[in-house]
Amino acid sequence: MLNLRIQSVEGQSETPKDKQKSFPMGLTVASMVGVLVWLIFILLFALYWSEGFSLFQDIVVFIVSAGVMGLVIGIMWIIWGKDRMQTWSQ
Fold first, then answer.
1. Which of 5, 38, 53, 74 could disulfide-pair with 69, CB 3.0 to 4.6 Å?
2. Burial, 50: exposed, middle or buried (Cβ in 10 Å; 0-12, 13-18, 19+)?
3. What whole-number distance in Å separates Cα of residue 80 and Cα of residue 60?
4. What does the pLDDT look like over 30-80, one tens digit per residue?
5. DSSP 22
6. Is 79 exposed, middle or buried (CB count within 10 Å of its CB: 0-12, 13-18, 19+)?
């Protein structure tokens, strides 16, 4: 067991059990930061940039920006989970 941990620390490939148990702290933080940046964008948009837009256009900006943020975060998690998919199916 100790030998497996040393190999993963040295940069060699992880075993399937190590991949299954690893917690994606970086992705979790990136997701939280992404949501925070999106909320700041929506606040700035509402305060400064939405004066010339109608209510319908404001709603469209909200929905499209939420969709883009969700797409970026989803793609990050899909890429992370792609190599772990085989360990879950076994």
1. 38
2. middle
3. 30
4. 999 999 999 999 999 999 999 999 999 999 999 999 999 999 999 999 999
5. -
6. exposed
